[in-house]
Specification:
6 helices, Ubiquitin-like (UB roll), Rossmann fold, elongated, 10-stranded mixed β-sheet, alpha/beta, single chain, 3-stranded mixed β-sheet
Length: about 270
Amino acid sequence: MTIAPELAAHPLNQVARVLTWGALGLLAYGAAGWLVARPWFALNTLEVKTPVRHVTEAQVRLVAERKVRGTFFTVDLDRVRASLEKLPWVREARVERRWPDTLVVSLVEHVPLARWNDSALVDADGAVFGAAVADRLPRLAGPEGSSAEVVEAYARFGQILAPLGMRIDTLSLSPRLAWRIRLESGMQLALGREDTDARLTRFVRLYPRLFGPRTDADGQQIPVETPLAVDLRYPDGFAIRMPGGRVPSSFAEAPASGAPSVKPSTT
């Protein structure tokens, strides 16, 4: 049967065609949704692709049991990824499908650089995370939001101290933004707020002259005591505090002309 052109172009016929194709589309969509939700496409395998040190397989599987919903086609990968990144040691997670029934998980763990404010850990990028570790680590401390700045200063100060073989045990930034260092030897260094790199560099340059190996007139090595604390917050020198308030033997020698001033401190 041939439909007259003027009848085919009638608005009601056009609406009918749109409704027919829309219904077919909804039917196809529903059928596809029904099909992909069938148990035939269930996820049966969870594979952790990258080796991890701190995150256990049991932790990953517990997240999978709680957060993996749906089939191979319908599982919400972003939801699973976000849940994995809430695990204490996980810095970054990636979740992918692998046909026909596997979820592949790739994890990047935090690498702890130091303890942060005695309540957390911090990595080399300044990211703070809550986790427990038995390893001996340096301690960093500072106001909230200052972790990246303190980590950067830790690396910078450590490089300046390296020629003396000194290592930082504790580095703290006070609420007033003043820096203080405690070395592994127990010596404490007050850097203050300004010119910290220059002050520490000056200390490193003068330290061997003041506390380096010495010999007496007979060529015998003289024991040298090291300071308990050094206050570097002086424009042209620093003050030191010795055990028992004693004056270093090196102070008996006349200072070099033009050298920065160094004086004992009783505080």
